[in-house]
Design brief:
heterodimer, A: 298 residues, alpha/beta, Rossmann fold, six-stranded mixed sheet, four-stranded antiparallel sheet, 11 helices, 38% helix, globular, B: 385 residues, mainly alpha, two-stranded antiparallel sheet, two-stranded antiparallel ribbon, 16 helices, 70% helix
């Protein structure tokens, strides 16, 4: 790059920044700024176009078997999307692709309109604001509940920062609030491995929330929970809707019902054989002939 | 919100690095190493019951070096869950770096009365190979004690961890590295004395090495280093860094999806662990008086893992106890029933794996044993009153 090119670039950037500053406050509408006056900041989530997650034509094959077959899906900012589908429909593989665990053979996967998730590693994807709950609850079994939350707390993830890390009062309060929210306050000092299955699920959800992610991917979050715990989980998720975007993969239709009944228009996506079979409100989807066929067999 | 505000403090007390009892233990250990042992060895006359023989001092010093390796192994295996079967190499590298300096200190007092080390004269070498360029400088060799194992571990670890090699596969390639390095050091052309290694040391920093007071000085330095390593390991394990390491051991994928890069954490503790072994090796060589490629045999590396497992993984005192227990047993067995030592070692390892997953230290933390101890303590109290 020649010096004059660099100078011209710096000039253009300064102009754009000035314009962005001048426009701030005046024209911003609900966090959305018209794109012509905006600089794209690398690594920062941009939901000006409404979508927080955008999957396009994703194909993943394992030894010739297509786990995902040209899957396209788009999740809006603040939306709660339930995803259902029979075993082997590709739900978990889809989450693997979004979180960087599996690289697709083809397709695009964007977080907001600027962050290409296929270029990032797992920990970077987590850092830009995608949180994931596994199907099987995974917590740090030998650490206490408190320490589990402390590790998940949003803070510098570097080695040196961790070596000299000290909890501030505000962070301590945040952990305390989370302990109350996930009903584990009495168990704060217990080793996480000693918790019941449902409590581990809650702890994992709490750890996700500690990271303050923009998008939560929840793989069968209520598996192994009692009815009461399931109900409380539904309440929790509903309270997150709007401020977070949620993708819930679940088999339990009662839970899906609990999540959607407040707003009958809420979208449910049905996956089958690695692509979207149907999309619409729960009632529509349940009435869909193709869906019935897939679930009941021919 | 009031429920949140009135919430009791939930953070565990971490204001002090160690508890009062642990600090007392560290102080006592320091006093024993730096005052009691030197006094018992140098001041108490040889006939007295309190005299500590030269042999005992040397044995304990040797075992303290081993204990450092076991502690290093515990950080990487016990806390991070990565079993290394290559720590013997790092130990030997530190030892060789120190050995090179000690060889140069011999000067012209070797068998051949030549200014070069005997093995070079024997091989008819006229000048020092390139890697001996700085061997005359104590400071440079001490830097090498840290850098050689550190660099090897860093490069090896970087590629292994980046390729996400885990579990038994990682153990196998560390074993392969050990074997390859051993073969390299067996060659005369490598310039490290081939299978004879380095021995016959005469001086260190110009002072004769075999005097009782020099031996005692090395003993005190070794003991203090071991205690310093223990306190350092305690600080690491007690920090958030240490908790991330344990988290990697328990659920590495969760660590990644929480936003941590396990590569950096593993690489940091792996390299530190290797450097600790290197320093242990450097302290070992002047006291034992020899370093040769047998320290790099795969079996030597496996033994480090055995000390750690026998003492108790994921406890810091465990590996030190294990190193003393196994090596103490070894020096007794090899005197009394030399041919049965290896059988005993194997049986010990199997017994610990089957019956004592927490090692010797874990035994004392077992609820049943704790109850038994408490009951006997109460009985003693009862009989005393």
């Amino acid at each position: 790059m020649t010096p004059d090119l660099m100078r011209a670039g710096a000039e253009a950037r300064r102009h754009a920044e000035q314009r962005a500053q001048a426009l701030q406050g005046g024209t911003s509408g609900g966090g959305r700024v018209a794109s012509y006056s905006r600089l794209v900041h690398p690594g920062q989530l941009d939901v000006a176009h409404g979508a927080i997650l955008y999957l396009d034509d994703i194909t993943v094959s394992f030894d010739g078997f297509k786990a995902l077959n040209a899957l396209s899906l788009s999740i809006s900012a603040g939306e709660m999307r339930c995803i259902i589908g029979p075993n082997g429909a590709g739900k978990t593989t889809m989450m693997d692709v979004i979180t960087g665990k599996t690289r697709p053979d083809a397709g695009r996967c964007f977080f907001g309109s600027t962050i290409d998730l296929l270029r990032l590693r797992e920990n970077e994807i987590a850092s830009v604001g995608v949180g994931r709950k596994f199907q099987k609850p995974t917590v740090f079994e030998h650490l206490s509940v408190f320490e589990n939350l402390e590790l998940a707390l949003k803070a510098d993830r570097g080695v040196r920062a961790s070596l000299f890390f000290r909890l501030s009062g505000a962070q301590l309060d945040r952990i305390g609030e989370m302990l109350v929210l996930i009903h584990l306050k009495e168990h704060a000092q217990r080793t996480a491995g000693m918790l019941s299955h449902g409590q581990k699920q809650w702890l994992e959800i709490g750890m996700l929330l500690m990271q303050n992610p923009k998008l939560l991917l929840l793989d069968e979050p209520v598996a192994g929970m009692t009815d009461e715990e399931t109900e409380r989980t539904a309440e929790l998720f509903l309270s997150l809707e709007g401020s977070h975007s949620l993708v819930v993969v679940e088999h339990d239709m009662k839970f899906i019902h609990a999540l959607t009944h407040g707003n009958p228009a809420k979208k449910v996506t049905v996956l089958h054989e690695g692509s979207v079979l149907a999309e619409g409100s729960l009632a529509e989807v349940q009435a869909d002939e193709k869906v019935v066929e897939v679930y009941l067999g021919r | 919100m009031s429920a949140v505000l009135s919430m009791p403090a939930v953070a565990p007390g971490r204001s002090m690095l160690l508890g009062i009892r642990a600090w007392a233990g560290v102080t006592i250990a320091l006093a024993v190493v730096a005052v009691v042992v030197p006094a018992a060895n140098l001041l108490v006359p040889a006939g007295s019951a309190f005299h500590l023989s030269e042999y005992a001092v040397q044995l304990v010093a040797k075992i303290m070096c081993y204990a450092m390796c076991a502690l290093a192994m515990d950080l990487i295996w016990g806390y991070t869950g990565i079993l290394s079967l290559g720590h013997g190499v790092f130990f030997a590298l530190g030892g060789y770096a120190m050995g090179m300096y000690l060889m140069r200190q011999i000067g012209s007092d070797g068998q051949y009365r030549m200014p070069m080390p005997d093995f070079m004269v024997f091989l008819n070498w006229k000048e020092f190979p390139w890697h001996w360029a700085l061997s005359d400088s104590f400071v440079a060799q001490m830097a090498l004690v840290v850098l050689a194992p550190g660099l090897l571990a860093f490069v090896f670890g970087f590629f292994a961890f980046r390729s996400r090699i885990k579990g038994v596969y990682f153990s196998i390639i560390t074993q392969a590295m050990t074997y390859a390095t051993m073969l390299l050091f067996f060659r005369n052309e490598t310039g490290f004395g081939g299978n004879n290694g380095f021995t016959d040391f005469k001086r260190i920093l110009g002072h004769p090495i075999a005097t009782p007071s020099m031996r005692m000085l090395l003993f005190v330095i070794t003991g203090c280093t071991l205690i310093a390593f223990f306190v350092m390991a305690r600080a690491i394990v007690g920090s958030k860094f240490g908790r991330v390491l344990q988290a990697i051991r328990d659920a590495e994928s969760r660590v990644m999806f929480t936003g941590y890069d396990p590569l950096r954490y593993k690489l940091a503790i792996w390299t530190l662990s290797a450097v600790m072994c290197g320093i242990a090796g450097a302290l070992y060589v002047p006291q034992v008086g020899i370093i040769n490629p047998s320290e790099m045999t795969p079996a030597a590396s496996i033994e480090i893992a055995i000390w750690t497992a026998v003492g108790g993984r994921a406890t810091l005192i465990g590996p030190i106890v294990g190193a003393f227990f196994v090596n103490g047993a070894k020096s007794w067995f090899t005197q009394v029933f030399p041919e049965f030592w290896l059988y005993f070692l194997g049986a010990l390892f199997i017994a610990v794996t089957l019956f004592l997953p927490g090692g010797i230290v874990g035994l004392f933390r077992h609820p049943k044993v704790l109850a038994l101890l408490r009951r006997s303590a109460r009985r003693e109290e009862g009989s005393a009153s």
